Amino acid sequence: MERENKKYDLEERLLNFALQITEIVEGLPDTKVCNHLGGQLLRSGTSPALNYGEAQSTESKKDFIHKFKIILKELRETSITLRILDRKSLLNDRSIPKENDELIAISFASIKTAMKENLERPASDAKSKNDLAHSKETKFPASNNQHPISK
Description:
The protein has helices at residues 2-26, 32-55, 61-87, 95-120, 129-135. It has 151 residues and is mainly α. The longest helix is centred in the middle third of the chain and has 27 residues, at 61-87.
């Protein structure tokens, strides 16, 4: 039951984050720059919730890890776009970047846990050593290559 609540909590957080992103985009001025950044933010900021839905229906651990890596990539892209908007004084809600950072940390931890569980399976269960080796390439989300919580 507790594991189900965690799933629900992450899903709700991603949905709420997507809704907050849509509000930011709708509030941007109608300029060439804001239209470009707004479109980019809309795609990358709503994608994690959609990909999370896909991750719930994966057929393998490898596919689950892949979906979460996409979520992580989109959240990182969203982070950069939010920083650009903030530097242009177009971001009024300071809680959005913080929530984005927390979602990055959660996604990274989910990938790390799934990869560890994948490595702990008996060798006969593993698809191939190349698949597992490839999955070890995930880097820490922070730009200084440290986990964001350990800053």
